[in-house]
Amino acid sequence: MNRIDIVINYLNKYIYEDNREMRSIYLMHIFGVAQFASLIALKRGLDSEIAIISALLHDIHTLQTLDPEKHAKKGALLARSILNEMNITDDKETDIICTAIHNHSSKAKVHGEYDELLKDADVLQHCLYNTKIPPSMKDEERFRKLLAEFNLKDPHK
């Protein structure tokens, strides 16, 4: 089994937990972010496997607890524990993944290349999941830059 499948199998256990409807919404978001992360990694010449694992675990705290409060910081700690238990990443990869998770809610700040990739994938999923809903103010500038990077027209207009 490859590393991505190992992480997906871990996440799938939450389908059977209480509050299935909320957990399924979070899982749909997580899997959408993972797909965009792969696309962005390919475009930017980054490791798509590391990008996908970061995306799959980026909201792990919220998925596990259904509490979004400080989920990036708490999720980074939880992701580190999960990755150490799974033993599927080396220390450098774990640091890249957990740093990206920790920083993914800080959309206004610029961080490392995998941090920015995860933020961008998160924004694309939020903005393209339902094009009848315009981007939030916090996502709008980043979304406009992504449209330009990928040479796309704004689907909200």
SSE diagram, text form:
Layout: H1 3-12, H2 20-44, H3 48-57, H4 60-65, H5 71-86, H6 91-103, H7 113-128, H8 137-149
Helix pairs in contact: 1-3, 2-3, 2-7, 3-6, 3-7, 5-6, 6-7, 7-8
Structure description:
With 157 residues, the protein is mainly alpha-helical. It has one domain: Hypothetical protein af1432 (Orthogonal Bundle). Helix 1 runs parallel beside helix 3 and helix 3 crosses helix 7. The longest helix is centred in the first third of the chain and has 25 residues.
Can you describe this structure in just a few lines?
69% of the residues lie in helices and 0% in strands. By secondary structure, it is mostly helical.
Largest sheet features: none
- Fraction of residues in helix: 55-70%
> How many individual helices?
8
Can you tell me the overall shape? globular
* Highest-level CATH class: Mainly Alpha
How much of the residues is beta strand, in percent? under 5%
CATH topology: Hypothetical protein af1432
- Return Rg in Å: 15 Å
Mean pLDDT: 95
CATH homologous superfamily name?
A: Hypothetical protein af1432
Give me the count of strands. Answer: 0
Structural class, from helix and strand content?
mainly alpha
The end-to-end span amounts to 43 Å
Features:
69% helix, 8 helices, Hypothetical protein af1432, mainly alpha, 157 residues
